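Materials and Methods. Structural model of aspartate--tRNA ligase. The 543-residue sequence of aspartate--tRNA ligase from Gossypium anomalum was retrieved and submitted for structure prediction as follows.
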Amino acid sequence: MSSESEEQQLSKKAAKKEAAKLEKMRRRQEAAALASAASSLSVEEEDPYSSNYGDVTLPELKSCSKPDAGNWSMAISSMDWTRVGALTQELKEKEVLIRGRVHTTRPVSKNMAFVVVRERGFTVQCLVATHEAGVSRQMVKFVAALNRESIIDAIGMVSVPGNPIKGTTQQVEIHVRKLYCVNKAMPTLPINVEDAARSDAEIEAALQAGDKLPRVNQDTRLNFRVLDFRTPANQGIFRIQCQVGTIFRQFLLSEGFVEIHTPKLIAGSSEGGSAVFKLDYKGQPACLAQSPQLHKQMAICGDFGRVFEVGPVFRAEDSYTHRHLCEFTGLDVEMEIKKHYSEVMDIVDRLFVTMFDSLNEKCRKELEAVGKQYPFEPLKYKPKTLRLTFEEGIQMLKDAGVEVDPLGDLNTESERKLGQLVLEKYDTEFYILHRYPLAVRPFYTMPCYDNALYSNSFDVFIRGEEIISGAQRVHVPEFLVERAQACGIDVNTISTYIDSFRYGAPPHGGFGVGLERVVMLFCALGNIRKTSLYPRDPQRIAP
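The predicted structure was written out as tokens:
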């Protein structure tokens, strides 16, 4: 290679190096310009409006009752709070005080910045500009520098812009005159709420357009659950869950049920088997209750007539599925039966139809928020719930070419297939399947009067998945001992339970359902960890 060509190659390399250096410098300058769009003022410059913004002091946050304890205390002392979700056009030209998180900030210039404030899933755009009375450049700088997810209080006038506001739930704007930071969030968060709130459809659409948006996976969400809770979908999910619990209580109380609270530390196991969390109880073997089953039956023997409970249930099964947890919230019911175990199914029918109607009526915004991130079709159900016998269900499966054991339990695939067949034939995704084979039910289940191979029991299904299990119980003590022994249970560990039936016990039955599973299937979320506040499965015991 000639010296001339070597020189040319070197000069090309030097030029590339110099160009890369200049590009790097340009990017740094751009970043610096963006970060300081509203911050080129001298810190030493005095601000006559400094009392209108800033960090709330610790003494003020100690529930100090003095209105003159600080700038923040004086500013809010005579004002009422307005929820972000209540900010509507009817409040035009009214001064309001709001609290929320910094969702985003957008500095426009030294004289103007926007901040979107979020409270419980609702968002509103706030304008901080020096043309407003009491707003200085230093205040604009302070607002522009706020970290996302910090908690702020803002006072300002409600304005209705001429054009629709994109990206916020509320179609009004707050012209801020005072703003205080109540608590700062870290500058860099483990996950961004904006990323966690993104739907799969949005991510896929961006990929098609050549952009790659961050996807927050399930484990990362659960590791930083506090941040994950803040998405509109999660705000909706757990408010829907609250409504499920509320309707469960209200309906049963209106039907003459009494709420009870049974122990979760028990001797032996509540349903038999090895899937229990064992522990030492002051030198005695004990376990966490798999169910309130035995104690709620004892309550019926104690003349409460009709009882229910909302409480934790523990299962030590190594189930790594989308619908199983080691701890969940159980909704349990037990009641006297006057004549037929269908009385229990009647309660299930009316309770859940009432619940579904209430969710569709009272949780529209929450369901919409969930559906935006996790699209789903509304649940199909009938005013009077469909009931099929187990034998009828087996026949439907056989007619569809699915071979199942007529005296065995249905596996997950068979349940889903039956749900599909029921939807096609009866146009419902919520139905009751009753008269299950006795061999697949717990020891305390009453056999059918006309065929001892079957039992007075039932399961309830939503979208092809089992959600409720119930039955008439054995209330004759001698027969109960016989059934327990047949199922391999040491009767000495449940002697108190059996003895309670020796004092006179009415015919009775009941059912149990998992709260998390109700919400998961109603919203077709596909994974029970989405509807458990802090899931406990075989691999997770924190946070």
